[in-house]
Amino acid sequence: MRKNRSVPRGTLHRLVLNSALLEGNLLGDPTERDVEIYVPHGHDGNGLPLLVDLVGFTAGGPAHTNWKNFTENVPERLDRLIGTGAMPPVVVAFPDCFTRLGGNQYINSAAMGPWEDILIDEVLPLVEGRFGCGGTGRRGCFGKSSGGYGAMVHALRRSDTWSAAASHAGDMAFELCYLPDMPGLLRQLDKHDGSIEAFVTAFETAKKTDDKAVHTLMNLAMAASYDPDPRQFLGIRLPVDADTCEVIEERWANWLAWDPLRMVDSHADNLRRLKALYIDCGNIDQYNLLYGARRMHRALEQLAIPHHYEEFPDNHSSVDYRMDDSLPFLAKALSAG
User: Fold this and answer.
1) Mean pLDDT across the stretch 248-257?
2) 206 vs 28: CA distance, rounded Å
3) In sequence order, which ranges of the chain are alpha helices (DSSP H)?
4) Which of 176, 175, 180 is nearest to 288 (CA)?
5) pTM for the whole structure
6) At CB < 8 A and 24+ separation, what contacts does 58-64 make?
């Protein structure tokens, strides 16, 4: 049942990507990926801007098109926003970027796969070739949490491809959002004799999972994203000593090289090419991401980079309603001129 039936419904299409870039990936993930595409009512997609939804950890793009109780999924939200004139019509793609380790940071990794390249070199041509949407100056990406991180990093690195980005509670200030998890991660691994392989095997064979196990898997996925070692099981090595939890400086430096706060100075010119950059975060975000967002906002102001920044009274969870602000912001920028 649709929550709002007063606006016309757009159309959802499903394409299948057979990714050459995922062939032989270290995680053994499938190369065949669904890409769902929303086309607004009254349009076939041709000539419209394109937005790409980068979902957070534990989700794949099609999760955002599933029916949701008491609220809207993203296509229903788009129907309302476009149908009421709050935003101009756009095509939105929902690629399945899920991995064996539960999620994605949307960067190239020798362990996780070349996901930056998959999005840009495979997903975009597939969608744009089929619907005639997007193209230079008319592409944007958005996401929350890991997806917000992906949107921010793509804005920093690939403004040759993307012209707008929205980061909702994206991972930044790694020493605040990742290092505090390391003692708990080691305690979870200790239950499996300190073995990452034993933990992953137990996780994958369990009849049900719990939040602590999922959070541990997420931290392992971060290690496989930022500092992969293909010689290790699933390419995972930790940035801390397994006995003392002391930071291993060389490995931690590899993580920090991917922290958007460490990238912003050297990639400032890329950000200046954007038509729109949106950053927000809840002011009681339980993963400490507010402080990274504030630091990014300050850095962007010092660099005189135009952007929209906002803090809102909520935490990290169930904040899809923030798309009511970010999606019109992106769509209007991409539709202008």
Assistant:
1) 98
2) 19
3) 74-83, 115-117, 124-131, 146-157, 174-177, 182-190, 196-205, 211-226, 249-256, 260-263, 268-272, 289-302, 323-335
4) 176
5) 0.97
6) 58/102, 58/103, 58/214, 58/218, 59/98, 59/103, 60/96, 60/97, 60/98, 61/34, 61/35, 61/36, 61/93, 61/94, 61/95, 61/96, 61/97, 62/34, 62/36, 62/94, 62/96, 64/94
Express each pLDDT in 172-229 by its tens digit. Answer: 999 999 999 999 999 999 999 999 999 999 999 999 999 999 999 999 999 999 999 9
Residues, the chain, total? 337
Q: Is residue 4 over pLDDT 90?
A: no
- The answer to whether residue 69 scores a pLDDT higher than 70 is yes
Helix (H, G, I), strand (E, B) or coil at 269: helix
Q: Can you point out the beta strands (E) in 30-115?
A: 32-39, 50-54, 91-95, 108-109, 113-114
Domains, the chain: 11-172+261-335 (3.40.50.1820), 176-256 (no CATH)
